[in-house]
Amino acid sequence: MPPACGGRVEVPPPLGPTVLCHAGGNPPPPYCPWGGNGAATGTAEGLAAMQLWLGLALWLGALGPLLAPGSAGAEGPRKLQIGVKRRVENCGLRSRKGDVLTMHYTGRLEDGSEFDSSLGRAQPFVFSLGTGQVIKGWDQGLLGMCEGEKRKLVIPSELGYGDRGAPPKIPGGATLVFEVELLKIERRPEL
User: SS3 string of the chain?
Assistant: First the structure.
């Protein structure tokens, strides 16, 4: 590894003013590309080799998080994303846990293929919010909505159907994209 190599090397731009050292007087190990015996080295070959090592290390360090298992780059978003597509002026009632909601929705996979829609049935979907009747992404993503509001929810698999999916239309590990419209809120009296 470069820091264990012999000598003191100052790296010129573009990599910046980095200085690598070790205890002087010891011979460099055989893998040290720029040589040295405790004295400063600065040969063109040595500097080029060190830049190559450092450049490779920086490049791999930047790619690592994207290639690691379980990373957002490899599997899509890891958090629920909520986008408001149509706001409602003068919202007097916002959805909360326990409310019965009447919704229209269209569900798609990340590639845009539709797997379900209430619009095609011309029948809105009715459920109780926050009680586990729907996927967690809906229970969280529909809180605080107003009647007439439209949202786009991008739901990671952990808040959707998980690793099992919902065959045959939803594969395991799928990120779900829903466009939802809240038609009606029925507030249940608190117990």
Answer: CHHHCCCEEECCCCCCCCEECCCCCCCCCCCCCCCCCCCECCCHHHHHHHHHHHHHHHHHHHHHHHHCCCCHHHHCCCCCEEEEEECCCCCCCECCCCCEEEEEEEEEECCCCEEEECCCCCCCEEEECCCCCCCHHHHHHCCCCECCCEEEEEECHHHCCCCCCECCCECCCCCEEEEEEEEEEECCCCC
Q: How many domains does the chain have?
A: 1
125 flagged as catalytic: no
Which residue in 99, 161, 170, 185 is the catalytic one?
Answer: 161
Q: Which candidate in 105, 155, 170, 185 is catalytic?
A: 105
Low-confidence ranges of the chain (pLDDT < 50): 1-5, 7-24, 28-41, 68-74
Q: What is the pTM of this model?
A: 0.60
Residue pLDDT, tens place only, 127-140:
999 999 999 999 99
pLDDT tens, position by position, 55-79: 656 656 655 555 544 444 445 558 9
Annotation marks residue 178 as catalytic? yes
Q: Catalytic site residue 31?
A: no
**Is there a catalytic annotation at residue 135?**
yes
CATH of the domain at 179: 3.10.50.40
115 in any annotated domain: yes
Q: By residue range, what is the domain housing residue 101? A: 81-186
Q: Which of 99, 139, 170, 178 is catalytic?
A: 178
